[in-house]
Amino acid sequence: MKIDKKRPFRILGIDPGTNVLGYAVLEVAGKQLTPLEMGVLTLQKLPNHYEKLKTIFQRTTYLIQTHKVHHMAIEAPFFGKNVQSMLKLGRAQGVAMAAGAVMDLDIEEYSPKRIKQAITGNGNASKEQVARTLEMIYKISFEEHYLDASDALAAAVCHYQELSSPIKKVKGKKGWADFLSNNPNRVVK
């Protein structure tokens, strides 16, 4: 979706999980970013994995409809040693993405390292460092148990940065070389 800088739009950030899922809705009006809603969906007490997935789908759909979301930014699963955990995390991410796809959202997936880089400038930053940076920027407070919500907000902000970047990724090309080849009139000789 091409950004119309004159019209506000909304991004839903998701930090997927089957025990705790973080979410944040970010409104973009010009260059003004405003967090509208953030929180966590706690799923530990649900009786089985299928109920968790159903709840993730329902809550994601509810957030999209309630806030009239246009984009979804979701954190990609990181590769760990526990295969079962990876499988469950991938399912949670897939269900959230399916909810966005059903609602015709533009969906982008970002690695944890890319999200941390976008917020703190350091791809190896901790969850706490990401949260503190967002607290300073948006004058909000994340309690310790809302770190998944801060990760979701970070994903949404990362997506905004990607959308507003003058350097667009094109299949087979990216970076300054692509920008320069697509914008010869902006090159000073």
Spell out the blueprint of helices and strands.
Elements: E1 9-15, E2 20-29, E3 32-42, H1 49-67, E4 71-75, H2 83-102, E5 106-110, H3 112-120, H4 127-138, H5 147-164, H6 175-182
Parallel strand pairs: 1-4, 4-5
Antiparallel strand pairs: 1-2, 2-3
Helix pairs in contact: 1-2, 3-5, 4-5
Describe the structure.
By secondary structure, this protein is of the alpha/beta class. The chain has a single domain (9-186), classed as Ribonuclease H-like superfamily/Ribonuclease H (Nucleotidyltransferase, domain 5, 2-Layer Sandwich), CATH 3.30.420.10. Helices cover 46% and strands 20% of the residues. It has six helices and five strands. The protein has helices spanning 49-67, 83-102, 112-120, 127-138, 147-164, 175-182; strands spanning 9-15, 20-29, 32-42, 71-75, 106-110. Strands 3-2-1-4-5 form a five-stranded mixed β-sheet. A hairpin with a 4-residue loop joins strand 1 and strand 2. The longest helix is centred in the middle third of the chain and has 20 residues, at 83-102. The chain is globular and about 65 Å long. The model has no long low-confidence stretch (mean pLDDT 88).
